[in-house]
Amino acid sequence: MNPADSATAAPAAMHTDTQRCVRAVQSKDARFDGWFFTAVLTTRIYCRPSCPAVPPKVANMTFYPSAAACQQAGFRACKRCRPDTTPGSPEWNARADSVARAMRLIRDGVVDREGVSGLAVRLGYSARQIERQLRAELGAGPLALARAQRAQTARILIETTALPMADVAFAAGFASVRTFNDTVREVFALAPTELRARAARGIARQAPGTIALRLPYRAPLNPDNLFGHLAATAVPGVEEWRAGAYRRTLSLPYGHGIVELTPGPDHIGCLLSLTDLRDLTIAISRCRWMLDLDADPVAVDDRLRADPLLAPLVDKAPGRRVPRTVDAAEFAVRAVLGQQVSTAAARTHAARLVAAHGEPVEDPAGGLTHLFPTSQALAGLDPESLALPRSRRTTLTTLVAGLADGSLPLGIDTDWERARAQLLELPGFGPWTVEVIAMRALGDPDAFLASDLGVRRAARSLGLSSSPAALTASAAAWRPWRAYAVQYLWATDDHPINTLPV
User: Which end of the chain has fewer surrounding CB within 10 Å, N or C?
Assistant: First the structure.
């Protein structure tokens, strides 16, 4: 059985296919972690498919599409496999429909900050429509899905900090300590103090003011282009590669933070320092999004490997991810600064903007100095102060104005095709700029840079026509994963973005 078989199907279809789910559980197939959850009727426990415990009898298994649905049905999380810490379903990053956009927003903490009504407004639907759509596909509504996420956040804080439980409840987004206690007991079958005691026996405490955790992913993961790209394009003051880790500042709803991400053999090490712990959930979500950790590499690679020309590239280094961003508006600005210049020049232009308009931060552990400036901060800049050609200044100031006044919304919930149409209407925006924003800022897995010089050079080396029109036609066989094909094509070039820094 192969996860690629369901690469374009809704997760609901998988959890209703009992035979396939049973085979995945009996073989302890970790590739399906997050695709569905196994609930055991006799023990009232739910697990991930790869749970190391002896598989239950088939008659005692039932399957759900989400942890929230399991919890609503009265099941509690397994203490061995910790199903609440699985990678997220890859469907939410591969689809552009309202349910996928809603899940990305819930994961980003929108329900906790703005309520279900705020979620509905962002999606352009009524709250009742969103509730109905989510229940139909995930077996739980937005409040239940957000509650499950709060429970996971609470568990992280309980196990990795020495915060008083009242502070944990507040930081995780619970309305009261009583609700926090009841939820933790219901989901994990342990009181918060018992969870902390269990963790203390096996988890070392970190320095005060930091939160250390592991970000899981589906194997394989090739860190070379992922961290190589982030490090090679890092904006001084905002990002850096230090001692084997990628570090950057984060602008968050309640404050700011600094994250340190270290590639490991079976997880990404994540060290967070936050000015307000209420930002923990969104910080984790944005880091996972930036590193594309919820992707299904088996489904992606199997589709690309079907092309004999791409197969050797995939076989040589499988599991490439698309390096994204923690802030779509930031990346759009950086994409304009990078038009028709070298990587070094783009970093220099961005560093000047940061120094002039970014908010200063303190970083005792390294060389980070600023947050990347907000669109509102950049809206008032003097175009004459930019060391750019006049046409590029117009492109940048027009983009910033649209971002600042909200007429050009860019984010994880953005409709990909609408954003493309809006960007193409701006002066100085051509196919390359629009597609790189769609790929790295908006997360469209099928974005394709047909006019990119590196892609065209790689195409020629494979014996393909390198004209954008012909290359687009050839790339039709790679859909819906053309953004990943770009990563494999770029990897044929000897460029720092393809090499894990030393």
Answer: C
Helix (H, G, I), strand (E, B) or coil at 311: helix
Q: pLDDT confidence of 205, banded at 50, 70, 90? A: low
H or E segment to which residue 113 belongs: helix 110-123
- Active-site residue, selected from the candidate residues 21, 47, 51, 81: 47
- The answer to whether 287 is a known catalytic residue is no
Active site residue 47: yes
pLDDT bracket for residue 78 (50, 70, 90): very high
Q: Write down the catalytic residue from 224, 292, 302, 452.
A: 452
CB 119 within 8 A of CB 142: yes
Name residues whose C-beta falls within 8 Å of residue 480's C-beta, 6 or more positions apart in sequence.
7, 8, 94, 445, 446
Q: Please state, in angstroms and as integers, the Cα–Cα distance from residue 264 to each residue in 69, 184, 270, following that order.
A: 31, 30, 10
**SS3 of 37, please?**
strand
User: For residue 92, what pLDDT band results from cuts at 50, 70 and 90?
Assistant: confident
Return d(Cα 176, Cα 189) in angstroms, integer: 19
Give the three-class secondary structure for 251.
strand
CB 100 within 8 A of CB 91: yes
Please state, in angstroms and rounded to a whole number, the distance separating the CA atoms of residues 243 and 246: 9
CA gap 282, 38 in Å, rounded? 27
Model confidence at 11, pLDDT cuts 50, 70, 90, reads very low
